[in-house]
Amino acid sequence: MELWDAYDRNLEKIDGMTLIRGEKSPEGVYHLVCDVIVRHTDGEYLLMQRDSRKHYGGMWEATAGGSALRGESPMECARRELLEETGIHAEWLEELGRVRADGRNTVYCEFLCITDCKKDSIVLQEGETSDYRWVTRDELLSMKRDELVTQRMQMFIDELKSGIRSDADRGPYEPVSKEKMEFKKLTSSDTEWNALADYAENCSWGAGKTLAEEMRQKHFTGWERVILAEDQGRVAGYCTVSGTDCIPDVSYTPYIGMLFVGEEYRGKRLSQRMIDFASEYLKEVGFSEVYLVSDHENLYEKYGFQVIDEKMAPWGRMQKIYRRAVPEKDPAGKDAGGCFGKPGHEEPVSFRKA
Predict the structure, then answer these.
(1) To the nearest whole number, what is the mean pLDDT of the chain?
(2) How many CB atoms lie within 10 A of CB 124?
(3) Spatial separation of the C-alpha atoms in residues 306 and 3, rounded to whole Å
(4) Among 60, 76, 77, which Cα is nearest to 68's?
(5) By Cβ atoms counted within 10 A, which residue in 23, 160, 202, 269 is the most buried?
(6) Of the ranges 92-96, 174-178, 319-323, which one carries the lowest mean pLDDT score?
């Protein structure tokens, strides 16, 4: 028996309610399905052929996916389905959008996986898929309706949207609003200060306790701030902007540090968005460059940072010191020279000893 969580029409979980696969959902109650569009770094898309014993057997679909099991987040479901149906293990997935099909009592959450896997390494799932192939954008758009199960994924990929010729191609879907992220620059006088300290102390990253202690002892003074990423009143992540970091006896300043993204918000470029928000604030207070300290490899380069130094941290581990110019604004008000590369694996980054 497969159990699902129950959601309302806005993909908010309904506490105390469980759905059973095969049983009709009550009116106004939805279950979650996650789809993953797979695009190779060479630009081709992965198609999977449905097993002949399944509904629409023999047809092709441009996504791997399925229903979220009870207790799974959208990201967890998408990663599991991708691995089961293709053998691709994704370190990150980018959420593209959410749509609701009222007639099916289903909310679909669409993700994109960009991979450089070997093209002949795809693994078929017994009873689910029988074949696979890689196709170009033009080949995908030229497929007929009796070949391709759904065109839903075309609603979310810019280079595929030209294949949507009419409202009928869009299917019976209504957009579902995603998170409403707000970014705030906190001082100890702000009402969110103590709540964020409590969150940091109890989050899954050990260094959060260090931040909580510093916040309660009011270590942040003058222009220094704690940056809060908040989704409709819920903490999604945080970072700091301060004059110093964990490396002593260096002249570099200011720093972005203590960067943490909550588990359910990873894979959505939130690290980059917090860094950009913090950088814009630092520009407002007169800085033209920003630094950060990390021992991660090939992560912050994607955000426009360059390694300028390496120093031993007080706990005996070498750390890289990164620098990035604070982005200027172009006349249209958009960031010039910002970071638009593939997002990194959004894990906590330890800038200070936990």
Answers:
(1) 84
(2) 16
(3) 47
(4) 77
(5) 269
(6) 174-178
- Location of structure tokens 């958009």: 334
From the CB of residue 52, how many other CB atoms can be counted at a distance below 10 Å?
Answer: 9
Which residue do the tokens 């105390």 mark? 16
Element (H, E) at 290: strand 289-294
Tokens of 30: 């939805």
Bridge partners, 35 (sequence order): 65, 110
pLDDT for the residue numbered 342: 30
Measure the CA–CA gap between 237 and 243, rounded to whole angstroms: 21
Residue 344 scores a pLDDT above 60 = no
List pLDDT tens digits, range 20-75.
Answer: 999 999 999 999 999 999 999 999 999 999 988 888 888 998 888 899 999 998 88
> Rounded to whole angstroms, how far apart are CA atoms 276 and 237?
14
| Entry pTM | 0.55
Is the bond into 254 cis (omega within 30 degrees of 0)? yes
Residue type, 124: L
